[in-house]
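Lecture notes, continued. The same structure-token format from the folding unit now serves as the input rather than the output. Read the line below as a description of shape only.
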């Protein structure tokens, strides 16, 4: 499939994008507007109390960001009129039916015009409150699907999931769908009943709310703990991957005649090429480790040095999304009798672990070499020199490190506090909180720090092969081939500088 044919698929079309202020969605919006200016309309669903607030978020968090620099340079003084003619911000929330939109005329307009829906709305915190994660990641999928069924022109609904719906599976993990009720290996419960989960969640919230003396922090923590507990019982390591898997089950079970495509990216990193290299927003898993190491807040790395980290730049994920949409935009209607093989072919792992693996050991040395040449500076402007990255290669070695280095000091503080009439209460409490926080984070990220899986991407490779089979001078416009990335060059010259410039603002 040539790039021009992909562009033709979106010419004159209307697209609804949910989660529009998210990192990936912003790259997607910018890409569409830049390469296909003849798009008809982009409805951008933005969580906001009203249209005015949605418009403000659109300006401040999307179109006025550095990401749109290339488009602004390209259009010059015409940028404002162009954007206002293409983008309609919609105040709404996927956790509500009809996205909570009360304007009947707007609903009718959207349902009558939308050709494609891209659902990128999600909460991505591993230990999100169970109610919020269920509302957005699981039942949000149902609300989007119900809305899609009312769109008379709809060609396709693309759902952005995550490769981590597979939990801690090991070996080669294929692009297969999740069936409603499915649980993972090692689950203590053999069936996932979403209705029962919703009922249990409501009962828990009612019980917690009946205690009028419960601090808000404890209320929230209880709901976070519930999510982790329910995830583990069903075989998932955290609330995020658990509820994202539920969302996939909803699409698989209730799609009926809606043409659904699911894209599963792994860890998404900064742009490698478009609209320019290194754009990043917020600190993600790997980036938090990099910044903590750069500031000498951590002096060791926890994880299996040989473990493969599946990472992919954000612009490649966007390219994969657009190519998958173009490939599945056919006139053949979907029916409920489509077989399992056809359904499985609608799922794409857009990652790197199979074809261009990056080990945890490689990444930590990339961090070290970068910071040797370009260290961060402290408040006085002096360079922060980092040591060579030591590694704790098991959870046992991590707990042993905590026991030797920190628990004795904590015990001393506890004794002094008792002897000196609580004079060290603040120091003791803060130290204990930091240690408990470190232990909790280690447990939360353990499945990924010691991950032993490889994500097969046969379906994604078929898309790439179809593109390569064409003689196309514009083939790079939609490139998402991970083998084209040289990891050391990318991290040292693109990704780490991007974190420093666009996230740390240094």
């Amino acid at each position: 499939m040539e790039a021009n044919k992909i562009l033709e698929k979106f010419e004159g079309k209307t697209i609804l994008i949910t989660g529009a202020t998210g990192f990936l969605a912003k790259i997607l919006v910018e890409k569409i507007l830049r390469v296909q200016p003849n798009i008809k309309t982009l409805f951008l669903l933005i969580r906001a109390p009203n249209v005015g607030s949605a418009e403000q978020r659109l300006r401040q968090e999307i179109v006025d960001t550095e990401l749109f620099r290339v488009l602004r340079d390209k259009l010059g003084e015409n940028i404002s009129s162009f954007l206002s003619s293409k983008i309609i911000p919609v105040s709404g929330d996927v956790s509500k039916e009809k996205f909570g939109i009360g304007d009947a005329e707007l609903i009718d307009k959207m349902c009558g015009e939308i050709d494609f829906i891209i659902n990128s709305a999600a909460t991505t915190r591993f230990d999100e409150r169970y109610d919020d994660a269920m509302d957005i990641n699981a039942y949000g999928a149902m609300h989007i699907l119900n809305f899609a069924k009312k769109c008379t022109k709809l060609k396709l609904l693309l759902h952005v999931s995550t490769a981590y719906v597979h939990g801690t599976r090991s070996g080669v993990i294929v692009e297969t769908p999740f069936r409603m009720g499915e649980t993972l290996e090692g689950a203590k419960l053999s069936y996932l009943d979403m209705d029962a989960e919703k009922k249990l969640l409501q009962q828990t919230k009612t019980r917690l709310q009946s205690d009028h003396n419960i601090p808000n922090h404890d209320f929230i923590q209880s709901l976070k703990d519930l999510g982790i507990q329910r995830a583990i019982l069903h075989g998932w390591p955290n609330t995020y991957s658990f509820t994202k898997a539920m969302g996939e089950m909803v699409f698989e079970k209730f799609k009926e005649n809606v043409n659904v495509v699911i894209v599963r990216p792994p860890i998404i990193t900064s742009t490698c090429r478009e609209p320019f290299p290194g754009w990043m927003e917020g600190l993600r898993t790997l980036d938090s480790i990099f910044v903590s190491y750069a500031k000498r807040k951590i002096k060791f790395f926890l994880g299996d040095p040989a473990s493969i980290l599946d990472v992919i730049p954000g612009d490649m994920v966007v390219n994969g999304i657009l190519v998958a949409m173009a490939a599945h935009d056919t006139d053949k209607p979907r029916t409920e009798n489509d077989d399992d093989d056809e359904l499985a072919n609608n799922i794409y792992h857009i990652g790197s672990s199979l074809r261009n693996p990056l080990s945890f050991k490689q990444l930590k040395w990339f961090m070290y070499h970068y910071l040797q040449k370009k260290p961060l500076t402290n408040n006085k402007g002096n360079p922060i020199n980092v040591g060579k990255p030591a590694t704790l290669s098991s959870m046992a070695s991590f707990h042993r490190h905590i026991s030797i280095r920190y628990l004795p000091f904590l015990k001393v503080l506890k004794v002094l506090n008792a002897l000196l009439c609580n004079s060290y209460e603040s120091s003791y409490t803060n130290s204990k909180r930091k240690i408990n926080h470190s232990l909790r984070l280690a447990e939360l990220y353990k499945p990924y720090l010691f991950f032993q899986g490889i994500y097969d991407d046969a379906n994604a490779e078929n898309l790439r092969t179809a593109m390569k089979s064409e003689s196309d001078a514009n083939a790079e416009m939609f490139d998402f081939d991970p083998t084209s990335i040289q990891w050391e060059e990318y991290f040292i010259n693109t990704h780490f500088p991007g974190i420093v410039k666009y996230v740390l603002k240094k």
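Point for the exam: The chain has a mean pLDDT of 91.
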